[in-house]
Amino acid sequence: MTLHLLKLAVGVGDLAELRVAQRARRKERGFYCFYTRNMPRRQDEVLDGGSVYWVIKGYVQARQRIRGFVPIINRRGRPAVLVKIEAKVTATESQPHRAFQGWRYLTPEEAPRDQRKGMGGKGMPPAMARQLRELGLL
Predict the structure, then answer these.
(1) Which residues, including other chains, have CB under 8 Å from residue 69's CB and lie 6 or more apart?
(2) What is the C-alpha separation between 40 and 34, in angstroms, rounded?
(3) pLDDT tens-digit profile of 85-133?
(4) pTM of the entire structure?
(5) Domain span at residue 129?
(6) pLDDT of 5-42, one tens digit each?
(7) Bridge-partner residues for 80, per DSSP?
(8) Residue 67 neighbours by CB under 8 Å, 6+ apart
(9) Residue 45's closest CA among 16, 82, 5?
(10) ∠ CA 68-111-104 to the nearest 5 degrees?
């Protein structure tokens, strides 16, 4: 069974900022990734087609396919995990989610669907799109 990860995009205000931050990290490291402290115990299920779903400003707004997990030693000399992800950021239907630390597992039934074409307020100012999401209109 496929399993996904749910992660906060800390310090990111919208999808455009997420893309910019990830491009900068790719320039530094040569690939798209994020870091986490713990290796998922259910990594085989995550690698079976799983994605990382990004919570941005209190809403699940995007996902990226997970490509692999690499155990590393971080700058402080502690074990960590580098999570390799695809470059493509897929917008999802907005789903509210409260803050948490680290990451969480997300089942396919709980995961928001990918955003349909023509939906989601593309071209709309981010503040307006956020207000419409909060009202449940987007």
Answers:
(1) 39, 40, 43, 46, 47, 81, 82, 83, 84
(2) 14
(3) 999 999 998 899 999 999 999 999 999 999 877 655 556 666 777 777 7
(4) 0.85
(5) 4-134
(6) 999 999 999 899 999 999 998 999 899 999 999 999 99
(7) 72
(8) 84, 85, 86
(9) 5
(10) 55
DSSP calls for 25-88: HHHHHSS-EEEESS--TTHHHHTTT-EEEEEETTEEEEEEEEEEEEEEE-TTS-EEEEEEE-SP
List beta partners, residue 105: 5
- Number of domains present in the structure of the chain: 1
Q: Residues 6 or more apart from 34 whose CB is under 8 A from it? A: 7, 25, 52, 82, 83, 85
What one-letter code names the amino acid at 47? L
**pLDDT for the residue numbered 120:** 55
Instruction: Return the sign of the alpha-carbon dihedral for residues 78, 79, 81, 82.
Output: positive
